[in-house]
Amino acid sequence: MKTVKFKLTRFAVIAIALGMSAGIQAKDNSLANFHSEMDGCETCHTKPRHVTDSETHENMQCKSCHGEYSDLANSELHFDPHTSHLGDINCTSCHKGHEAPKFQCNNCHSFEDDKMPFAEAKKKPKWDKGWDNEKIKKAIAAGPVETTDVVVIGAGSAGFNAAISAKRAGAKVILFEKAPYSGGNSMLAAGGINAVGTRQQKERGIEDKVEWYAEDAMKGGRYKNDPALVKILAEESASAVEWLESLGANMDGLKRSGGARVNRTHRPSGGHSVGPHIIDVLRKAAAKEQVDTRLNSKVVKLVLDNQDNNKVIGVVIHGKHSGHYMVAADSVVLATGGYGMNKEMIAYYRPTFKDMTSSNNVTATGDGILLAKEAGASMTDIDWVQAHPTIGKDSRILVSETVRGVGAIMVNVHGSRFINELTTRDRASDAILKQPEQWAWLVFDEQLISKKKMVRGYDHLGMLSKANSVEELAKITGMKNLPQTVSDYNKYKAQGKDEAFGRDLMPLSIEKGPFYAVRVQPGIHHTMGGVAINTESEVLNIQSRPMIGLYAAGEVTGGVHGFNRLGGNAIADTVIFGRRAGEHAAAHALKD
């Protein structure tokens, strides 16, 4: 069918939706049947029909008719789902052809009143539900359908950095992502990347040392970290920022996160979130390097050599459309993230957190940990789970600790401060949980929003209480002690000394309206433990020897952060060890 690209107005969208609503009555309320009535299955699919797991052709067909996302109106919505922080959502990520649509935003937010056409279509069973051991065995018995030098599992920051580094080293790389979009947990990162000795610090006259960075990380982790891994984290942090900048990232913003003695958290200037920005940069860099990235492709098995069960020789994939198949590889990199969204694993490893909400992406289900464990890898610090102190109450929206770093204060339900806001995450979380209500308020003014624009998004999501005066805010929220608390804090700011809790960084007073408050509570944010690695990002077996051809980086690993991770060290971890994993994986694959 010859298609014509056109730009949709709000009225066109409504008209199409109405037309669809009428048209779908003809058969079974599915998008596929609606389009097949136009020109058969070829309206969306190639002929002969072949659908790849990434559904690349189908998404191109959608855009050839309906235009790019920038062409799409958002109708009456108060938000635009086509320009979200998810970045690379494809048409088919939400608009399912043969089943009910899935509004990806609802994984974290609640937009239940906003429905897409064909919402009444029948839902099919999830294609990736569980691991089918019989099909896995058949795929291995059938042998590999293709061969590559390096397989990278997981398209978050660690995975992208590994894939790009391996490709630049001359390796043939395939990057597999189980979700219908890339980014993982990294795209939700709100803080920044910690680094020492950078251009940004030097331009601002900030004295910092590699030793200070390492000491802060060790202290924050209660000295349970692997010192060798922390040493690399500190020493290679500046080059990590330079690497991101070389790929096109803006890291000119500089703030301070909890547990750091100086400003070393680098982020985009203008107050924008670091995660979406970095993932967008990495995604484009991977495309430029021609990394073969495949979505809707879940790795369900690490294949071991029959002659040497310490050697990984490939993986089994469960593709959304292609089913189970094996890919042979000389090297495999695990970059699958943590298990913060796996309730069963949380209940097993950290039962006191089992009822907590989580800020994590829905993809953070511990797949890589389970794969590695089954293959004989050693685990470390696996039961150490971090609660972030400031997740929006009754939501899964993380309120970055840089909000406190920029100037917000934290108070209880009565409006009284109860801790130094810049302490480490574990101590701040413990302090909130010791409050009778087990939640708190963050309070700030318009000055903070002007410096940290991402906070405006909390207002759009209905999370903020807002008033023209502190007294009015106190009345709205029931915080009777707030006026006195704010007055005291402003006095401490003016005199440069926090007499109540010893906070040594108070960038802003709270005196320019409007004034804001957001309710927060601790929630699962990061799983510190995971696969044991050495300094070359090689995965260690239960005898603490490197497994041949298996590497890991990012939150899937343990040892880097100890008992508690400092804000800004996760992105540093993913970039630094992602690059190391990719480089060493490529070197191993190409050594012969």
UniProtKB/TrEMBL annotation:
Domain Tetrahaem cytochrome residues, every copy: 34-110
Residue spans crossing the bilayer: none
Gene3D superfamilies from the UniProt entry: FAD/NAD(P)-binding domain, Flavocytochrome C3, Chain A, Succinate dehydrogenase/fumarate reductase flavoprotein, catalytic domain
Annotated cofactor note: Binds 1 FAD per subunit.
GO MF annotations, alphabetized: FMN binding; metal ion binding; oxidoreductase activity, acting on the CH-CH group of donors
Domain FAD-dependent oxidoreductase 2 FAD-binding: 149-570
Catalytic activity: 2 Fe(III)-[cytochrome c] + succinate = fumarate + 2 Fe(II)-[cytochrome c] + 2 H(+)
Cofactor: FAD; heme c
The protein's Enzyme Commission number: 1.3.2.4
InterPro entries associated with the record: FAD-dep_OxRdtase_2_FAD-bd, FAD-oxidoreductase_2, FAD/NAD-bd_sf, Flavocytochrome_c, Multihaem_cyt_sf, Succ_DH/fumarate_Rdtase_cat_sf, Tetrahaem_cytochrome
Enzyme class at the top of the EC tree: oxidoreductase
Keywords assigned: Electron transport, FAD, Flavoprotein, Heme, Iron, Metal-binding, Oxidoreductase, Periplasm, Signal, Transport
A cellular component term, taken from the record's GO annotations: periplasmic space
Xref: Pfam families: Cytochrom_c3_2 (PF14537), FAD_binding_2 (PF00890)
Compartment annotation: Periplasm
Record family assignment: Belongs to the FAD-dependent oxidoreductase 2 family. FRD/SDH subfamily.
NCBIfam families, A to Z: flavo_cyto_c
Protein name, per record: Fumarate reductase
Organism, as annotated: Shewanella gelidii
Source organism phylogeny: Bacteria, Pseudomonadati, Pseudomonadota, Gammaproteobacteria, Alteromonadales
